[in-house]
Design a protein that fits this description.
The chain is of the alpha/beta class. The chain has a single domain, classed as DHBP synthase (Alpha-Beta Complex). The chain is about 30% helix and about 20% strand. The relative contact order is 0.24.
Length: about 220
């Protein structure tokens, strides 16, 4: 049986969001649009849901999974030691396609950190995604909606073709913008460590960093 595809009404999304909340609350997995491509969402506090997410993707243990947050006020639920430098990058690029890697709280599932003790967090620029997160009242895993190593997917129909027999609900909000994936920067220690250059260029990050340094 294929996944249920639900099309969002951007004016009145409540019914669709309630369906997603029911699925997530029961340990299910949804596919939903993010800043660039579709992602796979599961409750990051549910070990069985996270385990299922790895199985759906064919992802190896030890590979971390980033989380999407409704807003930056939720960071303290997942991360410790939020530096002034991290705050500066959030000021410059959130909401948007920049994932920041923090020291994880001990309560964060090891599967999400890949055993590194660090957790990637992002407040997405996609308004539909933020509204979904607000309605759910929880963070969501933000890994790409594909099999590991497969192409990134921009439409609900593409997700259905690759993963339709594995996920519970696909939230269809039209084609995502595509392009480069989110950039990833490690802010868990002093300084700025570029993990992956993506939609936000390294030069843009360095410029924001230097502006912060001039102010301090």
């Amino acid at each position: 049986m294929g996944a249920e595809i639900v099309t969002i009404d951007p004016v009145h999304p409540e019914q669709v969001f309630e369906r997603c909340r029911s699925v997530i609350g029961s340990g299910g997995v949804i596919a939903y649009p993010t800043d660039t491509f579709y992602g796979l969402g599961a409750d990051p506090m549910n070990p069985e849901a996270v385990k299922r997410l790895f199985a759906i993707k064919g992802r190896q243990a030890g590979q971390p999974i980033l989380l999407l947050l409704h807003d930056r006020s939720k960071i303290g639920e997942w991360a410790a030691g939020i530096s002034d430098e991290a705050e500066a990058l959030m000021d410059a690029f959130w909401p948007g396609p920049l994932t920041l890697v923090f020291t994880a709280l001990p309560s964060v599932l090891q599967e999400l950190t890949g055993g590194t003790g660090r957790i990637g967090l992002r407040v997405p620029g996609n308004e539909v995604t933020r509204r979904l997160l607000e309605a759910l009242g929880t963070a969501l895993t933000g890994t790409s909606a594909n099999r590991s190593g497969g192409p990134d997917l921009q439409t609900a129909q593409d997700v259905a073709g690759m993963l339709g027999d594995k996920v519970d609900v696909i939230l269809d909000a039209g084609r995502t913008v595509g392009g480069k994936p989110s950039s990833v920067v490690d802010v868990s220690a002093a300084g700025l460590t570029m993990v992956r250059e993506g939609a936000v260029s390294e030069q843009e990050l360095r410029d924001a960093w230097h502006k912060f340094k001039k102010r301090t």
